[in-house]
Amino acid sequence: MAWTSVTMASLSGQVAAYKAQRREDGSDDWRDVGMAMETTLTLSEQENDKRFAYRVVAVNKAGEGEASNSVLAVF
């Protein structure tokens, strides 16, 4: 996965990490699948023949930001 960095409000501080999440297509249950310090993350051992939605959430000392738009992928 790769994404563009975000600028958080000055009161919130700089991004400390990014959390990647996924859910099965049609589900509302987002699950954490990885953390990254930069704007890339390699996910391995993803289930075959299933549709998953992925999104990224920026995290800093103030907590989590809003989730990115999700993208669908099939492996």
UniProtKB/TrEMBL annotation:
InterPro entries: FN3_dom, FN3_sf, Ig-like_fold. Residues 1-75 form the Fibronectin type-III domain. This is Fibronectin type-III domain-containing protein. It comes from Candidatus Kentrum eta. The lineage of its organism: Bacteria, Pseudomonadati, Pseudomonadota, Gammaproteobacteria, Candidatus Kentrum.
